[in-house]
Amino acid sequence: MARRLLSIWFPRLASDVSLRIRPLDGPFALTLRASNAEHLHCLNKAATAAGLHPGMPLADARAVCPALSTRPADLIREGRALEGLRRWASRYGPHAAKDGTDGLVVDVSGVPHLFGGETELLADLEAWCERTGVCAKSAIAETRGGAWALARHGGGVIPEGGLLARLGPMPVSALRIEPAVAEALIRLGLHRIADLTTVPRPPLARRFGADLLRRLDQALGTQSEPVAAGAEAPHFGVRMILPDPIGLTADVMGVLDRLLIRLCDKLALARMGARAVRLELQRVDRSAAVVDVGLARAMRDPARISALFFKGVDEVDSGFGIDGLRLTATMTEPLAPEQIGNTEARAGDELSDLISRIGNRLGFDAVQRFLPASSRIPERSFVTVPAASAPPVPFPQGRRPRRPVTLFPAELLTQVSGNPPARFSWRRMGFSTLRAHGPERITPEWWCDDPAWRSGVRDYWRVETSEGPRLWLFRTPQSGSRDWYAQGVFL
């Protein structure tokens, strides 16, 4: 049986997916930020007809087409859409694999007769894509390279033994080679694939590398190229159908505990941990309730996960009863086995449980933690990030100046006498200096234009007052001003 391969190209996959969710009329494009500028990533048909192209700067695109509508590109959603199409394409053959970021390749050997022939198979595929609003071009050939080239240059079917006759008139860029190589070949007068077959191979290999000849041989069938479908992502889910409906919170939690044990056993076998878990409760009337729980870090401890579900399960209306439960780990991460009884691990578990409880109530973005940043400027020496998405990083403990526990925007002192201040007023209270340590000079970072630091260097002093507060004061000698400011409080 002759080998037959199907190549499917989605020239506007990202924009088609975005417009399916939120339809728009007129020219439309998705944008990506690169080199501190927005560039066009994927365009719909109207934007292409207006003269725009991928990679074009957004500013230039708006000058050419003022009516252009844009949205930020979502590469993760684009990848999920291609994976969904890969699973759908398995209806045409048992081996379907991704071919770059905008295409698929399917081994359809022995399958076309089920659709009435290869032409009918392509018609069925393109009709389905048209109904779903996804633009697709497809082709069938005996080699992967031949099908890839034909799909991007008109589509159709190459009969067995007709590769060179069909591919020969195509441009050399149809060989899946780098654009720079294709341009160099064109400058030499080698415009078509057929031109490469008449040129001695050793000079081509010396000048353009072995990859050019490899792609040529793969397209013409003299070198094999496998179609290897990627392994399916593991599914971590369990379910239970009950003989009689239940409705009490205690009963649901009891079934949930049994499901969690099974789910965590599956995770342990794969050395994975859950970061998000979903519980689906099927009611007798065929409606469903969903309880989602997020975790501050990957885990597979049934007891700790179960405690997070109690509030959500207690708020579910069981209706006439619940007769089915499904538990799924919707987000997972690798989790190596841990030593039991580790004191540091237990302390980390307690903190992550606290973050999980608060995050499930307020949202995980509301729980922040401080991380060190590479800057000498006090207010830029740290960043705040969601605690659930960033592991803790200790601040450097080497030789470094002391910093106050509380920082705030600079506040002007009044009634200042002395240098450093012997007496001063701050926040409508009078203070007298007991001890002063300094100065510590901090220079502005020239690569960051911060309006607060345009006055030049600052001389900081640690001041202990007789009234109790220990303050962080500074002045700006370069500005010529004698004003003093407070910016922090020590413990």
Q: How much of the sequence is in beta strands?
A: 25-35%
The count of domains is 5
- Percent of residues in helices: 25-40%
Major sheet: arrangement of strands: 15-21-20-19-18-17-16
What general form does the structure show? extended
Distance between the termini: 81 Å
- Tell me the structural class: alpha+beta
Mean pLDDT across the residues is: 90
Biggest sheet details: 7 strands, antiparallel
The number of helices is: 14
Low-confidence stretches: none
Judging by the overall fold, what is the CATH architecture of the largest domain? Answer: 3-Layer(aba) Sandwich
Radius of gyration: 33 Å
Strand element count = 21
Say what the CATH topology of the largest domain is.
MutS, DNA mismatch repair protein, domain I
CATH class of the largest domain: Alpha Beta
Short précis:
With 491 residues, the protein is of the alpha+beta class.
Characterization of this structure:
With 491 residues, this protein is α+β, with helices and mostly antiparallel strands. It has five domains: 147 residues, MutS, DNA mismatch repair protein, domain I (3-Layer(aba) Sandwich); 57 residues, DNA polymerase, domain 1 (Orthogonal Bundle), CATH 1.10.150; 122 residues, 2-Layer Sandwich (Dna Ligase, domain 1), CATH 3.30.1490.100; 34 residues, no CATH class; 85 residues, no CATH class. The protein is built from 14 helices and 21 strands. A seven-stranded antiparallel sheet has the order 15-21-20-19-18-17-16, with no helix packed on it. A hairpin with a 2-residue loop joins strand 17 and strand 18. Helix 6 crosses helix 11 and helix 10 packs across helix 11. The termini are far apart.
